[in-house]
Amino acid sequence: MIRTMTMASLIALAALPSTVAAQPIAVQAISGTRLDVVATGETNRVPDLALISAGVITRAVTASQAISQNAQQMNRVVAALRRAGVAERDIQTSSISLNPEYRYVENQTPVLTGYQASNQVTIRFRDIKESGSILDALVAQGANQINGPSLTIDKPEAALDEARRDAIAKARARAQLYADAIGKRVGRILSISEGSYNGPRPYESMMVGRAASMDAAAQTKIVPGEQTLSVTVSVSFELE
User: Helix, strand, coil shares of the chain as percentages rounded to 5?
Assistant: First the structure.
């Protein structure tokens, strides 16, 4: 008896529709006109991060002398950065080089005159207003090569989201313009895709640097200006 009931139950279960089978998704047909719009949204921000390359170039008769002198000066430069409050994570060695130097005379074999040693670090200044005075301190401690700054935005996510909202608003306004022109109204959005975005790309705003012979009263200043962040979106509307 138990066996008979089990078989009956199996037959009944087999007759039921499967709840895990894939079901087709109904796609609502477009009854109006499809309009594809590409729009770019923008927002502006004042850069809050400066990237500057600073270093020391030394020359000596021998390679060991050039490297030794360079290391001594570079140690003073890095120590000055730390005293100024620049965090370890914001100081990164970017290049070290040692090259021979020759004197060239026409029709004669080049003559070795010495060696040039170079050590460069990339520094992230999170307080742009203070970066100029720090650069002056670096020069005083032996830095004789300074390039930059590249100015950028440290955390651009919120600004990019603002640009995205601006892009969607522009796309809808453009769709409304087309709808009005052909006597229709803007209906549902069929699709949205983000085509591209331009975040805060570091740009060279000015060249900074001071020779040791410059007027001590002069102070290096960095003006951050403003950067534009943009996002481009493609939006498809149905015009009814």
Answer: 30, 35, 30
Q: What is the pLDDT of residue 200?
A: 63
- What is residue 31's predicted lDDT score, i.e. its pLDDT? 82
- List where CATH 3.30.110.170 sits in the chain: 31-45+154-200+228-240
Say if CB 120 and CB 55 are below 8 A apart: yes
Which residues belong to CATH 3.30.70.2970 in the chain?
49-152
Q: Which CATH number does 31-45+154-200+228-240 carry?
A: 3.30.110.170
Residue 69: its H or E element: helix 63-83
Buried b (16+ CB within 10 A) or exposed e, 15-28: eeeeeeeeeeeeee
Q: Which contiguous run of DSSP H or E holds residue 59? A: strand 49-60
Verify cis geometry, omega within 30 degrees of 0, for the bond prior to 149.
yes
Please say whether the beta carbons of 56 and 74 come within 8 A.
Answer: yes
Residue 51: closest CA among 119, 125, 120, 103: 125
For residue 125, CA distances in Å to 38, 90, 130, 133, 235 come to 37, 7, 8, 11, 39
Mean pLDDT of the chain: 85
**Mean pLDDT across the stretch 155-167?**
95
Task: Confirm or reject CATH 3.30.70.2970 for domain 49-152, answering yes or no.
Answer: yes
pTM beyond 0.70: the answer is no
C-alpha angle 224/226/227, rounded to 5°? Answer: 115
